[in-house]
Fold this sequence. Notes:
- By secondary structure, the protein is an alpha/beta fold.
- About 40% of the residues lie in helices and about 20% in strands.
- The protein folds into two domains: about 5-125 and about 250-320, Bordetella uptake gene, domain 1 (D-Maltodextrin-Binding Protein, domain 2), CATH 3.40.190; about 125-240, Periplasmic binding protein-like II (D-Maltodextrin-Binding Protein, domain 2, 3-Layer(aba) Sandwich).
- Residues about 10-25 have low confidence and may be disordered.
Amino acid sequence: MRRRDVLGLVPAAAAASFAPCIALAQPAWPSANITLVVPFTPGGLTDILARSVGEKIAPMLGKPVIVDNRPGAGGSIGATYVARSAPDGHTLLLGHIGILAVNPSLYANLQYDPLAMTFIAPLAIVPNIIVVHPSVPVHSIKELIDYAKANPGKLNFSSAGTGGAAHIAMAAFNVASGTVMTHVPYRGTPQSVGDVISGQVQATFTSGVSLLPHVRAGTLRALGVSTKNRLSIAPDIPAIAETLPGFDLSAWYGIVGPAGLPPPIVRQLHDEIRKAMASPDIGKRLNTEGAVHFDVSPEEFRSYVVAETNRWKAVIEAAKIKIE
Length: 324
């Protein structure tokens, strides 16, 4: 089910006060509301980032930002919608590692080409955490590996959807550790995490934004973080690399648009998004979650995604994952 929310509505008087400046910089844009498509259900980190950034850039641009949730097919439905939209800067996509770097190797008949889209601004790099329900008799990554190997297929892990970031993250862990855990897909992160908390599924591997509060409350047990080093906000959680040397797998997020966006619009969007991400409140939230602002140019962002696409192609082929 789609959800659309208007963020950062600008009062008429306020809009009028800065309209001349906008007109001088870019007279034809924006001429309408800006739709920021989130290809997942509300409540996950992609959605949270979209709303945070949307609220900040709306007054900068002088138009409301509408967050439009279009979930399905590992984010492909929303991404395809944006890829087929007019390249006028009024329809954008908040994508992440799965949509922009994983899906090309995962889906046999992908309806959009991430590398053909216009790269605008990266947002953040966010660590993932492997957690289990407290009833699972493991307290470390080594114990998880040993238990999974002794009980192949017995452990289930949840994700926000087939082909999503949590699915591919655990697939990468299975490949690196030689384990076999069964994937249970959901239609969003809240449901995915909720069923681990209730014990219906044994594990998940997703961003700390949705997991750390439950870890601190004791309803989930954290085993390891995906970054090379431990997180300053959770130093008691070991890095998975302490058990699997070289393991480094963090989620990343960014904003892209349809192919052919005019360079002046790209530059303006990039600059305003960069200002939004540097704001104290968003910075505080990122720090709280162990995330960092991913701050590079649109050209460097695209190069990064090319490298990530090649990296994940190897992981997906090793894990023998394919979705028709």
